[in-house]
Fold these 3 entries.
Entry 1:
Amino acid sequence: MNNATAAGENIHVLRKVQGKDQSWLSREMGISASYLRKLEHGERPVTPQIAAAAARALRVRTARIWGQPFTAPVEHSQLLDDLREALRRHTLPKEDTPPLGELAAGLREAADLRSATRYVELLRILPRLLGQATSTAMDAGGDAVAWGQVADLYGCAYAVAHRMGEPDLADMIVSRQAWASRQSWNPVAEAATAWNEAGTFQSAGQYDDGLSIVERAISAFEQAGGSGPEYIVTLGSLHLRGIVLASRHRDQNATDNHLRHAKRLVDELGAGGDVLRHNLTFGQGNTALYELAAHIELDAPDRAATMADPLLRTPPAGLAPSRVGRLAIDAARASLAINKVQDAERHLKQAFDVAPQMAELHPMSREVLRVLVVMHQRSKPDLVAMAKRAGLAE
């Protein structure tokens, strides 16, 4: 990845371009001028709530604050263009229907690459695989399973676009996923689409609207009824999305409500580790991860740090690298917030080890890393190496 400006720098530049001073912007954002100064100088990490507040005040998208889409190698740009072409041709796939065994193998590979956070490799196979799955579904008419597979692939595509900082592409993918879900007449596919749709509002910093999407999806899914692991994983995942949206919206009651429902569903799921269905992971481990993140968003990083160490020492069964990597990033964020700098660096290293592509791209990984580099004035080789991988240093 090539060098990219950091969120604090982007806030500074946008403020200057618009002729605003720090006093005005800090008032609009609801923070102190001294805190804004530290954000702009890279001495404090920009959080999702800060990015959303800055975007509202400066009348830009949150993607502009994060510096997204990040400058990527030429190959990545070409692969993203291939995916855009496949999305454009969603009703006119170029690919023929493949043998069932070939398609099944491709679907498994896509799910595995997504779980392993190997986004570039996933991007290489997605356009062709989407075309093949869509051709298969069209030939099968109204077959719910075939259209559900198309919807699941769009879920994989959303993960790539979201993580690579392509919000417009992510929005387009969700609309295509909604189209495929409607063909399936499958409440699970529609709920998984709502999970991603709420994610687009989350990325945009519109947490209250995202909560509305989640609550509407939960109501519709519960009315449809169901039972068994697939039902529990889907409903539980919607509540997990609700936890992060509510906590970022600073709504303690809504956060507690979604967490309470998630824990009840964990009990129903039973022992045996987290379960993956339709690109959604749910169980005791992932619920703990979301609870930990909520503590950070609700200004209790000490509670998050206390939870983090035992979870990272022995990651819960069933958690894919994507989830363990996210756990490590949140642990680093919590440690930095309570001035445990060495712990923050240690956790960030674990994120780079477990889920390198995620760690290079995740906004909070980049923000924690940027602050650590500034604090150490580039004197620590390990930090500099991670910063180079993330495109934050030459």
Note: The chain has a mean pLDDT of 93.
Entry 2:
Amino acid sequence: MSLTAEIVLARGAFQLDVSFDVPAGGVLAILGPNGSGKSSLLGCLAGLLRPGRARITLGGRDLHGLPAHARAVGMLSQDPLLFPHMSIVDNVAFSPRARGVGRARSREIARHWLEQVDAGEFADRRPGQLSGGQAQRVAVARALAADPELLLLDEPLAALDVDAAPAIRGLLRRVLTEPGNRATVLVTHDPLDALALADQVVVLAGGRIVERGPTREVLTAPRTAFTARIAGLNLVPGTATDGGLRTEDGDLVAGMFASDAEVGKPAVAVFAPSAVSVYPAEDGHPGSPRNTVAAVVGTLEPHGPVIRLRTTGEGWSAGLSADLTPAAVAELHLEPGTVVQLSIKATTVTIHPAIATSHSASSASSRAIGRA
């Protein structure tokens, strides 16, 4: 079932104003910082919040105004929320039972989905006998046993430890990529969840959509600071100019233009932490065309096999990240407060158009809802 949503919701000073589509069988990831409107959006889709104005259709069926139990919507959150007094099979059977399916048939459906999520062996146990990962498998089975036309996933891996999360992510990927008509909306802070599970992504900020598109494209070519941060990339805002990007302070960041970047228009320079070389402040570094800028070490944090350096200070070097080997950190005697020189090859920097403000688009969607 395809989902079409245009939602305007006011909660005090905050206003959510969004519109998006999810095709049948598609998975849309919703990213955004805390307070951006992700939970409010899910609440509107689930029927837990009533927006001031909305058009929400699922397979052509109008959901706006329907109570939560009549929407054919399933929801999975980071807390499994299993009934502690019921067996696992009865927990999962609760979903079809709530739709009026008979007891015996509901148990058949429950056992089927428990097998699908590799949790069949837990059928006769109680929730208190399961680990966090096992309980989340059961929660997935319960959500799917309801045969929802729309599946809402609210940070489903956030509460799992590093050993359990990959297994549940793989389970969700297998279930969500099976042929079918179910539409899925996933809220997550983890770009790996979005990349592994979602076809499309939208990024919220202040109740508006500021980025949208195919997941891999958005996360490899971010246009906002938040998206760059969760994607693990550096982003410098400014204006596209001949040879690169002119920052707000007038500095030039040399780079390669993306096909849709235009001279004189707002733009962002994007590059990976691995593209940033770090030298002592007094050293020059001749060679191929490079961007060089003074910076101050802010933090040094383990990041897999490397140490991620984050800068502080003023100018376009503030807030940049560089990946270094532990040996390089020791050799350079780096610590917070150390003044260094950063160098980035122009060929590793891509200039993309900046995202325009979404007020005009939001106003257009509000007018369309008002006419409905």
Note: Residues 357-372 have pLDDT under 50 and may be disordered.
Entry 3:
Amino acid sequence: MAKIVFIVPYSKYYVNFSWDLLNSLSNEGNEIIALAPDESFQQELAAIGVRLVKIPLNNTGLNVFYDIYSLHHLVKILKSINPHIVICYSIKPILYGSIASRFAKVKTLFSFVTGIGYVFIGNTLLQKTLLIIVKKLYKFSLKYNNKVFFENPDDLSLFRSLHLIGESNEALIVNGSGVNIQKFSYSPRKINPVSFLVVSRIILDKGIIEFIEAAKMVKRKYPHIKFKILGPYVRSPGSIKKEIINDAVNQGIIEYLGETTDVRPFLAESSVFVLPSYREGTPKSALEAMAIGLPIITTDCPGCRETVENNVNGFLVPPKNASALALAMEKFITDSSIIRSMGEKSREIAVRKYDVEKVNQFIKKSIGLE
């Protein structure tokens, strides 16, 4: 059995994205040590045999001195644990976890690129400057990985074109983190009244502003239609001010549902799932919505387009286009019968392509543990 270290940007990541994989590996007798910058879910992880270790890592910070300290601390931790395998998720854990693993003489290292991050899709001077640095760090750190996993072919192509992964890197595409199709079981959709739900952090890159603008357009013709947003406010360079959301709520355009540890009741009360994101790895929120039988409206962009067969289980719209989003919404309003039929197709795709058991089996086989 193997001693495996995971490195992620925040402890809730384990609950939201890696829970089934950690549980499976632990049940098979592997020793799992989960590193994260906080200890919020220590007891929950301990209950499935996973030890959580706090590390100094600021996932969104730009303090180079703190990052150097983080790297130094990671090396010490990895040397003391002496793992057989290290697995890194998301930008900073990949960059610093890979370099630290090299210094700690870890022999087997894997990274999961779960999205390219806001520095790749922004146009500000800060984002352009950060991109230069991030590309150099990626190129340096990824060469130490035995394999690099991507959640969609576009991200893999981008990394190849930018020479961030070399010919020596074996790169694989995995269907996101999968979805537990038993936990997210199918139920027929509620269609009276028709309601549209976004589940997302409240940040610009998720298309929240476009969702609000599209809701305004639809409300003019169909004032009874419901538009809901579920998700946390976060400290991020792309965060949206609470005043913007509150203003839309006060105008009766949307309902803000706050945040939750269990999205299933909110999905069950909705008709259509909407994710107008600018780019994703593979959105877990969409997979969960598909599994319970929601049709999907999302953008025709990397990561998002993988979840929708256009006109089969939903509609693809151009990113950053509120008018196109509103038109797609109107299709479900004028012909509500497609809500159930497309929702059934969503469930079929989730079971066929994104079942977490199939995804985890592929991952375990790819890292030599199956």
Note: The domain at 195-353 is CATH 3.40.50.2000 (Rossmann fold).
